[in-house]
Inverse folding.
């Protein structure tokens, strides 16, 4: 028996043996995302390109969960792992069926290029809804648990392969990403842009890392010695494989002008440890090898890494030895998964305003509801981008109609186009306003469903509107949406604003004039059902904002400025519209008796935080207990989230929540990117929101503050 077929040997031994039997040409073509079969060695064709940000994507029917930013709003790392487990289960089921019928096409593999753990540093970035938000700690925790769910916990095999992307310092602008150089100082690099990737590598053992399109500090990310060699491999000890973003390597010579030819570009990428080319440029490695720009040993190293991944997935072992080969296609989009999807949608919705407890609505007290707006009956606004195909979609309009049945009249108007000035080509501008006003006049309450969809915000090349790149030019509601809202208000009818978007918008007018505001994100294929259930009080909203909602772009630095000064809750100076970590509830959950095990920070010793969490309201609800740390010194972040725990409580129920702070959580990076535990005073805040004036004013809840200190000499961590 050939060694590569011997299941008693290590995957590394087997992969090395297999690759040693290949010709140089065969090795080269295995470094393309569409790797051809090598029949003489029993190697099947394999396409590495697959997506699973919020469900198995682009390969037919699958459970379409809320978009990643919505999953982040759950502030629930346990639940996000459960979702990822469901995604990988469906991925395996689909893969098993596809293999049976010899379908080796794109989006049919087990190497999922998810999650996106870039930091959503600027609300204008179109791809921000693919991320877990603006905070390095939250992104790290959710990224780790998402990866754990995808890859599974089997002692030998991976259920699926996860990928942390896009490495690194990447968050727009989309329009110039193929030539853009993100300049970033060492402090911001270590404090903001790298922690989530480091956590995914060191704590989650992520199998794949994807490089970004842009350059960082002068090096194209997919060919960066600093990122791929010095940090990823040598400093963090990454053992998996690196994949380029799609066609990013041609940007070396076409956009960044780091190299002059395709041959030089592939040599640079391969020599720096980019093992797999999403695209076809790595065919030029044959020329690069002929010209002495890359050695066969370097190519072989990459191919070994790639086959280790495939072997970890069980693709070279007896079918009965791999536990995931028995997963049947019947679990795809099953009732169990649909129910989990609905639960996720309910958990992700954030209640931003609820004037005088206007919500929940009493079905028995309402005769007619007017559902108005471009997102009210939009399937696209349910799912975001990188989405699968659901067997059923439930829009907000449909969710409300189903919930109230024949008991309440539901009237509908599109109100306006999402971003154009008319809905019909031959009509005059604002051609739906009279209908919207007629619906409003006939209704007791208006549910205005506004926002964006992935036609407006998304990846460069994916969006199809006049904004083009996918980034937002402003934080305003686009098109005639704001005008429509103001016209509806003049009817005197109460307005509930439901916003479906993947990013922060500025609705200062609605904050002043609407009775209630719900941020629904892109809530998944069944999101309309969940939103209806929240509107009528079937469940209490529990989502929290994973990003800051600013009042305008005037508060923000230039989009192209990657310095964190003035950005996100950790560094901004102005008061936000709504703060990171903020979200209201229908019930009244309070945190009391916050304590810490020690007020003195001691290297090597954890600080244990405890707090009693009680539901003093009349509904079952959930709260995300948040622990923030502040170092009382100049040039430090204002606050940093360092611990988090989601707790669900029945009315009258109380639980003691325990959270852990490590000495490293008090460390700060200096200008050289070195983490230092500085001698001095610190504060620990424990509660259900940020300890900022805006959150306290809106929630009426002030987090407990506990003074602590590190009396020793400042030390490197």
């Amino acid at each position: 028996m050939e060694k590569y077929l011997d299941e008693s040997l290590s995957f590394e031994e087997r992969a090395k043996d297999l690759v040693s039997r290949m010709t140089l040409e065969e090795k080269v073509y295995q470094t393309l995302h569409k790797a051809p079969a090598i029949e003489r060695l029993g190697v099947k064709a394999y396409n590495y390109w697959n997506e699973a940000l919020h469900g198995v994507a682009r390969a037919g029917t699958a459970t379409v969960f809320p978009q990643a930013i919505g999953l982040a709003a759950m502030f629930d790392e346990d639940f996000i792992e459960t979702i990822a487990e469901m995604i990988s289960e469906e991925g395996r089921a689909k893969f098993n069926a596809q293999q049976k019928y010899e379908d080796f096409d794109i989006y049919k593999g087990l190497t999922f290029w998810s999650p996106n753990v870039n930091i959503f540093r600027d609300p204008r970035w179109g791809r921000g809804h693919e991320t877990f938000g603006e905070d390095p700690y939250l992104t790290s925790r959710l990224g780790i648990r998402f990866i754990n769910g995808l890859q599974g916990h089997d002692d030998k095999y991976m259920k699926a392969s996860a990928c942390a992307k896009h490495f690194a310092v990447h968050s727009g602008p989309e329009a110039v990403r193929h030539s853009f150089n993100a300049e970033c100082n060492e402090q911001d690099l270590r404090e903001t842009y790298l922690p989530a990737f480091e956590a995914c590598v060191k704590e989650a053992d992520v199998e794949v890392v994807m490089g970004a399109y842009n350059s960082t500090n002068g090096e194209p990310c997919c060919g960066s010695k600093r990122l791929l060699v010095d940090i990823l491999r040598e400093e963090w000890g990454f053992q998996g494989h690196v994949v380029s973003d799609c066609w990013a390597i041609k940007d070396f010579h076409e956009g960044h002008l780091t190299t002059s030819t395709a041959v030089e570009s592939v040599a640079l990428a391969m020599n720096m440890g980019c093992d797999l080319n999403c695209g076809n440029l790595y065919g030029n490695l044959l020329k690069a090898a002929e010209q002495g720009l890359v050695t066969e040993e370097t190519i072989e190293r990459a191919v070994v890494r790639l086959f280790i991944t495939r072997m970890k997935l069980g693709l070279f072992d007896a079918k009965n030895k791999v536990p995931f080969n028995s997963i049947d296609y019947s679990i795809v989009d099953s009732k169990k998964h649909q129910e989990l999807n609905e639960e996720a949608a309910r958990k992700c919705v954030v209640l931003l305003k609820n004037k005088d407890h206007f919500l929940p609505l009493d079905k028995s007290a309402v005769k007619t509801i007017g559902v108005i707006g471009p997102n009210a009956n939009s399937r696209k606004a349910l799912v975001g981008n990188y989405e699968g195909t659901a067997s059923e979609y439930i829009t907000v309009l449909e969710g409300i109609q189903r919930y109230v049945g024949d008991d309440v009249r539901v009237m509908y108007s599109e109100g306006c186009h999402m971003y154009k000035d008319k809905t019909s080509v031959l009509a005059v501008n604002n051609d739906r306003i009279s209908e919207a006003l007629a619906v409003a006049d006939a209704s007791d309450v208006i549910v205005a469903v506004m926002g964006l969809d992935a036609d407006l915000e998304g990846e460069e090349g994916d969006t199809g509107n006049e904004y083009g790149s996918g980034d937002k030019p402003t934080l305003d509601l686009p098109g005639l949406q704001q005008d429509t809202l103001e016209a509806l208000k003049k009817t005197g009818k109460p307005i509930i604003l439901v916003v479906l978007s993947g990013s922060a918008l500025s609705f200062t007018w609605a904050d002043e004039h609407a009775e209630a505001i719900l941020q629904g994100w892109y809530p998944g294929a069944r999101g309309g059902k969940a939103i209806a259930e929240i509107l009528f009080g079937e469940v209490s909203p529990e989502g929290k904002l994973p990003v800051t909602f600013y009042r305008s772009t005037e508060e923000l630095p230039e989009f192209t400025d990657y310095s964190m000064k003035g950005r996100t809750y950790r560094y901004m100076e102005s008061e936000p519209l709504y703060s990171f970590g903020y979200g209201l509830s229908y019930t009244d959950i309070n945190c009391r008796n916050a304590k810490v095990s020690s007020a003195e920070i001691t290297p090597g010793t954890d600080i244990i935080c405890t707090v009693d969490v009680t539901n003093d309201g009349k509904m079952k609800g959930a709260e995300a207990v948040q622990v923030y740390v502040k170092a009382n010194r100049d040039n430090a972040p204002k606050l940093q989230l360092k611990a988090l725990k989601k707790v669900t409580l029945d009315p009258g129920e109380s639980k003691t929540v325990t959270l852990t702070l490590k000495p490293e959580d008090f460390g700060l990076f200096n200008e050289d990117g070195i983490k230092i535990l500085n001698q001095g005073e610190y504060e620990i805040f424990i509660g259900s929101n940020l300890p900022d004036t805006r959150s306290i004013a809106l929630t009426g809840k002030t987090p407990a503050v506990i003074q602590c200190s590190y009396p020793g000499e400042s030390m490197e961590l």
User: Anything to note?
Assistant: The longest helix spans residues 77-100.
